[in-house]
UniProtKB/TrEMBL annotation:
Domain of life: Bacteria
GO cellular component, one term: cytosol
Family: Belongs to the UPF0301 (AlgH) family.
Protein name, UniProt field: Uncharacterized protein
InterPro entries xref list: AlgH-like
Length: 181
């Protein structure tokens, strides 16, 4: 599932996973890791990582990548075309590269298409994610280049579902609170 999106189903109705969209960074027999793309924290990046704030793609804030290791930061950049990623980064898939945030921003940003920084990540042990998918907690869909750096993270859950070409598109209209339907 590396490079694909996990979209929470309406049954995940609380916490960081409520209406979340997760970009899968790694998935193999040992487990999986990803970052939640649509949970901005409203925190100033420079207060945590001085020098990076002015380089963040809009909205210029730290994002909650998931419930695991919230005291750590993970940077993702986009790398245009088939170019080699900038110094201090490593391509994960497609145009997405992970960034060593100890690298000076001026070495990275001239070659990057955009940057997002996450506090923490979402992680699953071997077989755990597959079990959650079987129980109906997640939809697995293809990602698009614009998902990582969306300028409207609050609308991403609905946007990703609406662009599906099957009955899954109807889930985008599921009310946030079914009792108000």
């Amino acid at each position: 599932m590396t490079g694909r999106l996990l979209v929470s189903t309406p049954q995940l109705d609380d916490g960081v996973f409520h209406r979340s969209v997760i970009l899968m960074l790694q998935h193999d027999d040992n487990g999986a890791q990803g970052v939640v793309l649509n949970k901005p924290l409203g925190a100033d990046v420079d207060s945590v990582l001085p020098g990076w704030g002015e380089h963040i793609s809009a909205p210029q804030t730290l994002f909650q990548g998931g419930p695991v290791q919230l005291d750590s930061a993970l940077g993702l950049i986009t790398v245009p075309g088939d170019d080699d990623p900038p110094p201090g980064s490593q391509r994960l898939f497609g145009s997405v590269a992970i960034l060593d945030l100890d690298t000076p921003p001026l070495l990275v940003m001239p070659e990057a298409g955009g940057l997002r920084i996450f506090a923490g990540y979402a992680g699953w042990s071997s077989g755990q994610l597959e079990g959650e998918i079987r129980r109906g907690s997640w939809f697995v869909v293809d990602s698009e280049a614009a998902d990582l750096l969306t300028s409207d993270p609050d609308a991403l859950w609905e946007q990703v579902l609406r662009r599906q070409t099957n009955e899954l598109a109807f889930v985008a209209y599921y009310p946030s609170d079914p009792e108000l339907n």
